[in-house]
Amino acid sequence: MCTMVLKLRNLYKWEKGLEPWEEPEPADLLDWIEAKENFWESIARQPFRELGINGTNYSPIDSNEINAAFLKDNLIYGAGYGRSMKAVFFVAELLEQRRVSGCPVIILGRELAKEMASPFAMAQDNTVYIRKEPLRYFLWDQINELRSSCRASFRHALFLYGLLTDDQLDLGKFKNKLDYIVDQEMDIFIYHEVGELLQDILDSSTLQKIIVTFPGSVIELVCRSIKDILADTHPEGLLAHLVEENRQAALSFYVGFLDGMRKELFPEIVQAWNSFEASGEWELIEQARITRREKLLTLACKIRKIADEIGENSDNSVLQKFDSLILSHLAIQSKW
Question: Is 98 exposed, middle or buried (0-12, 13-18, 19+ CB in 10 A)?
């Protein structure tokens, strides 16, 4: 519920042209949320409409043809399905194109249309998309939320950026440096998505089969989290990049932001960072990457075999295998 309210608040800010640090009046926000939810309820069961561009109609999920029509306007259209198979749509200005480990990367700026979820980093059709507007809101919210945290890694990142005054987050400095931090730390999200594209053990088709069958379940959460850590620990993924480039602030943010299921699945990185802060030995991070990757690759192979049974065996039988071979092994069933 808190996550949904946060996303609604940020959608309100975007619609009203507010900066991440500008807070709306509570009454105005609540009225807007009520009106928005009533509108969404009124269209929830309607099919998606075709998009008309220069006299031609396009299916809203045909992003390739729509982007061809948008080419001269320097716009990018995105369409797909995010967590729990919720639809994602956006139109944004194209800022930059680059290639990372052979993968096309598209950096997007001002957004003309967006949905509530607004994932700021995503991979689709072997292309990585980074949406800077949602990323600005994410970093502002995350740093504000964790500013009083006792996580040493997070505070270390703030120190490296000069955002601490009397050991407290200086909001004035943070406002002035927000866009600089966004530009500097985009690599965290670019290399995560590149790792997702390159890792093929727990591939997108396998994950999609699991999500369609068990949407919003603990199984989806666990499988997504394992896929995330496999992406981060890929030899051409995030952590390998941070080690190679000695990106200390990015590493500190990564460990500081790690929470929930992903933190449960990657205890080695927290332990390694604690030693790294004192020694500065990047080999500690590299060893944590390798160790966790080897463990999760074994689990990912089991998940893929279980997913192959979806549609062949009963859902209950598949659930029992997930429970006995994956959840029980991770010792997180009772906690999640």
Answer: exposed
Q: 46: buried, middle or exposed (CB in 10 Å: 19+, 13-18, 0-12)?
A: exposed
Determine the Cα–Cα distance for residues 70 and 53; give it in Å rounded to an integer. 8
pLDDT digits (tens, 9 = 90+) for 167-176: 889 999 999 9
CA distance 50 to 42: 18
Domain ranges of the chain: 1-44, 199-330
Query: CA angle, 87 as apex, 84 and 92 as ends, to 5°?
Result: 130
Residue 196's pLDDT band, with cuts at 50, 70 and 90, is: very high
- What is the distance between the alpha carbons of residues 223 and 101, in angstroms, rounded to a whole number? 25
CB 92 within 8 A of CB 112: yes
Rounded distance between C-alpha atoms, residue 6 and residue 88, angstroms? 17
Contact, 88 vs 51, CB < 8 A? no
CB atoms within 10 A of CB 203: 15
Angle between helices 152-160 and 248-257 (to 10 degrees): 140
pTM: predicted TM-score of the whole model, two decimal places = 0.90
Q: Which residues contact 84 (CB under 8 A, 6 or more apart)?
A: 211, 215, 216, 220
Dump the DSSP string for 222-236: HHHHHHHHHHHTSTT
Contact 207, 224 (CB under 8 A): yes
